Amino acid sequence: MESKADSFNGHSTNLVSIPSGLLASTAFNDFPLPLRINGVREMNRTLFEMLARATSREEAADAFQNYMGALFGLDSEQRLKPRDRRRFRSSYLRLLQGWGFDSNGPEGAVLKGWVESRFGLFPTFHKTSLGRYPSPGWMAYVEEKMSSRFHNNSINLQLDLLYEYCQTALTRYFAPGRKHLTLYRGVNDFKEHPIKERLGKNSAILRQNNLVSFTSDRMRADEFGDCILEARVPVVKILFFNGLISGATLKGEGEYLVIGGDYQVQFGYL
Q1: Which helix (H) or strand (E) holds 168?
Q2: I need a labelling partner for 227 at 20 to 30 A (CA). Which of 10, 55, 86, 207 fits?
């Protein structure tokens, strides 16, 4: 079951101005640095001024959703009648819903592709383990992540704004003053997250996919596997969590979408 992960594979550049190899490391997770996607806040000052004026997390969520609706036409998309659905506009909400249904589906590929382009981290799994490039698995992933169906409405910019809004909300309302959250993941094997180094009987460094789901509810994690992974996740690596906005839910109330890399985890068994 145990395998040795390859050395870090990622892009030499990214849009967060921190080397991708460092970002993927356990050293970064232990001592996280602030992350900002270059230019997003500067080019969307109106949104972040609205968020700064908000006096509650509900008011901030309304400001974010109203801004996204106005900028990307998402409100009109949601009001389209069934016979008009051919006028599809890609939205971050659709991607989150698709991920909740199947993280290895087309929506999952687009989300993993966004992480790859912004943070420089290659995915390690999409339907199958992604080893050396090129391979049939890599070709299938690239085809799905580049699908024009999901890239017709500045979807990467939508996800940039979602990440930056999430970080603002965590800092102000959900995790003020905290650098880490303790999160859990249930697994049955290590196919999607190979063991890089054994640290002890119940501890190891795992290479997580470049985007991966965790939960804040340990009891919820055991629904997805007999082995429970416990990790200290840097707040700056959180893209989304249920409760951040209305109208977008993942599999469980406590689910978090987390930027991956190498994580030191503790094992627990049912």
Answers
A1: helix 155-169
A2: 10
Cα–chain center distance at 172: 20
Q: What is the total count of domains within the chain?
A: 1
Q: What pTM does this model have?
A: 0.92
* pLDDT (tens digit per residue) in 163-202: 999 999 999 999 999 999 999 999 888 888 889 999 988 9
Residue 160 near residue 37, CB atoms below 8 Å: yes
- pLDDT band for position 216 (50/70/90)? very high
**86 Rama sector, left if φ>0, alpha if ψ -120 to 50, beta otherwise:** alpha
Boundaries of domain holding 208: 20-269
Sign of CA dihedral 17, 20, 25, 29: positive
CA gap 118, 36 in Å, rounded: 10
Q: In this structure, is residue 128 part of a structural domain?
A: yes
Q: Answer yes or no: is 61 within a domain.
A: yes
pLDDT digit string, tens, across residues 114-170: 999 999 999 999 999 998 888 899 999 999 999 888 888 999 999 999 999 999 999
In the predicted structure, residue 247 carries a pLDDT above the cut 80: no
Q: How far is CA 86 from CA 77, 83, 101, 149, in A?
A: 11, 7, 22, 11
Q: Residue 225: inside a domain, yes or no?
A: yes
d(C-alpha 59, C-alpha 102), whole Å: 31
| Distance of alpha carbon 34 from alpha carbon 121, whole angstroms | 17
In this structure, what token pair is assigned to residue 129? 């383990």
What's the burial of 163, exposed, middle or buried (CB within 10 Å: 0-12/13-18/19+)?
A: buried
